[in-house]
């Protein structure tokens, strides 16, 4: 079994691949929060069906998105991706936002200093992060930082993977 990069490395690489030109969730943060809360019970089904989505499950998810004001599930995905970008760039202590390319550079520097990872794992993670850095772009809708900060506690409740970036005892 091949060792996996740390959750922080995986999260950073995954988020940096998403477009930072996603639609503005400015007026939809509350709606997005409610929608994510409605989707939470379906999350395990969605994850297990990642390769072969169940048409009935897909239809149910689309209906939830539409009932919350999104014209399509893709529109919700754009808003969710943008929220994730902002959450990934927020420092849990200071609340300062770091642009995705700058965050990736910081994570690369931290990874280079990591003495616990094997050199092979470190090289693999660094290659993935360097590749992600090539496509990372600054956040297009800067006003979303303030909106996400406003709903950060609620978002952290429905997006537990974002809580991974906060080290124990720093919350």
Major pleated sheet: none
* Overall geometry: globular
Order of helices and strands: HHHHHHHHHH
Give the DSSP E fraction (strand runs of 2 or more residues).
under 5%
Radius of gyration: 17 Å
Overall number of domains: 1
Count of individual beta strands? 0
Structural class: mainly alpha
User: How many DSSP H or I helices?
Assistant: 10
Helix content: 55-70%
Through-space gap between termini: 33 Å
Give the mean pLDDT.
75
Describe this structure in words.
Helix content is 63%, strand content 0%. It has 171 residues and is mainly α. It has one domain. The longest helix is centred in the middle third of the chain and has 17 residues, at 73-89. The chain is globular. The chain starts with 6 loop residues before the first helix and ends in an 8-residue tail after the last helix.
Key attributes of the depicted protein:
globular; 63% helix; 10 helices; disordered C terminus; 171 residues
Could you write a compact summary of the structure shown?
The chain is an all-alpha fold. Helix content is 63%, strand content 0%. It contains ten helices and no strands.
């Amino acid at each position: 079994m091949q060792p996996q990069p740390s959750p922080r490395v995986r999260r950073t690489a995954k988020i940096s691949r998403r477009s930072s030109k996603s639609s503005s969730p400015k007026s939809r943060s509350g709606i997005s929060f409610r929608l994510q809360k409605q989707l939470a019970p379906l999350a395990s089904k969605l994850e297990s069906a990642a390769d072969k989505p169940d048409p009935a499950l897909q239809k149910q998810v689309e209906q939830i998105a539409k009932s919350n004001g999104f014209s399509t599930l893709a529109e919700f995905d754009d808003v969710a991706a943008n929220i994730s970008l902002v959450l990934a760039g927020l420092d849990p202590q200071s609340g300062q936002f770091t642009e995705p390319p700058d965050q990736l550079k910081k994570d690369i520097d931290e990874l280079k200093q990591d003495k616990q990872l094997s050199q092979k794992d470190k090289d693999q993670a660094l290659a993935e992060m360097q590749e992600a850095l090539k496509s990372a772009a600054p956040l297009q809708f800067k006003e979303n930082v303030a909106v996400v900060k406003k709903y950060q506690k609620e978002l952290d409740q429905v997006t537990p993977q974002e809580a991974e970036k906060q080290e124990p005892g720093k919350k």
